[in-house]
Amino acid sequence: MASLFLFDNQITARAAADSAAVIADTARVAAAHEESENLFTHLLKHVQDAHELETPFGRIDLPHLHFLGIDMSITKHVVFLWLAAVLLVVILAIVARKNKKNAVPTGFGNLIEIFVVFVRDEIAIPNMGPGGLRYLPYLLTTFFFILLMNLLGLVPYGASATGNVSVTAGLAIIAYIMIQASAIRAQGIGHYFAHFTGGVHWLLWPIMIPIEILGTFTKAFALCIRLFANMTGGHIVVVSLLGLIFIFGKISTTLGYAVSVPSVLFTLGIDCLELFVAFLQAYIFTMLTSLFMGLGMQSEGHDAHEEHAH
Questions:
Q1: pLDDT single digits (tens) 47-75
Q2: Strands (E), the chain
Q3: Quick check: 293 and 138 in contact, CB under 8 A?
Q4: Phi, psi (5° rounding) for residue 246?
Q5: Distance, CA of 127 to CA of 121 (rounded, Å)
Q6: How far is Cα 33 from Cα 27, in angstroms, rounded to an integer?
């Protein structure tokens, strides 16, 4: 009887030890999972906007400003937006002065000239016709400004201001104003407002006019979200790939080392793709803006609407 009681106690003690081991393992896995989540959240902060700049020598806090109850604080994306604007003015001013002295541009000036000719011959004139040349300075400014902001995000400790929806919304608002202004200038105010009727019977105007007005805003909205999503998505992929090294490293050091090689290789591939996307998104935003402006500058379609209404 005593031996049976002793055997039961041993089984109970072993079960308790096993339960404690399971609880300890569960707690360790949960702690590792929580730490991995915190680490991944910390990595995502490199993509998000912040009130500080990261440098090789530490972090620099940016001033918090409020005006009439509005938060006017300077953030990381604002700093790199200003930096892109300053670089744009300085670089293009130097190139313009250099190319003005040389009949045939050379060196870096020749490279900039290639982009200028490309925007003029492949974007402005095909989409807007000869009348689009008057809007060429705006298109060139848009192209180079977006390109510089995109490229600054690929520099170590840099940030892409176009990864902020407020920045892309500002660019889209300017594009919206230019689209409507170019249409009014080309068609006249009468033809411009006649466009909102769609050429249908006046009884259908209460339906057609709101739809046409909404259509003017959807173009700008598409420009805003397309640029923001493409620039943000690439950076999140890079952060996710690098984050795998630390996440698996918390589980097992050997596993972390095993994952590091393919993660770095894939990251380099994504970085090369991001370099291509930086140029591509600047081109797409500029091309679509000129296309929307060109559609508004064509008055033949509006004349046809009026004849159909009569």
A1: 778 888 888 888 888 888 888 878 788 89
A2: 52-55, 58-61, 66-67, 70-71
A3: no
A4: -75, -35
A5: 10
A6: 10
Distance from C-alpha of 271 to C-alpha of 268, rounded to nearest angstrom: 5
pLDDT digits (tens, 9 = 90+) for 24-53: 445 454 444 455 456 556 666 667 788 888
With contact defined as beta carbons under 8 Å apart, do 279 and 169 qualify? no
Distances from the Cα of 22 to the Cα of 25, 27, 133, 249, 252, angstroms: 5, 8, 73, 22, 18
Q: What is the pLDDT of residues 267-310, one digit of tens each?
A: 888 888 899 999 999 999 999 999 999 988 875 444 444 444 44
Give this prediction's pTM: 0.81
Give the rounded distance of the alpha carbon of 2 from its chain centre.
76
Among residues 215, 220, 270, the alpha carbon closest in space to that of 240 is found at 270
State both tokens at 89. 């003015």
Residue 180 · residue 216 · CB < 8 Å: yes
As a whole-number percent, the residues of the chain with pLDDT over 90 amount to 36
**Residue 5 CA: distances (Å) to CA of 2, 10, 16, 18, 272:** 5, 9, 16, 20, 71
Q: What are phi and psi of 191, to 5 degrees?
A: -65, -35
Q: Encoding tokens for residue 194?
A: 């006649």
HSE-CB at 49 with a 13 A cutoff on CA atoms is 17
Nearest to 171 by CA among 284, 83, 47: 284
End-to-end, the C-alpha distance of the chain in Å comes to 111
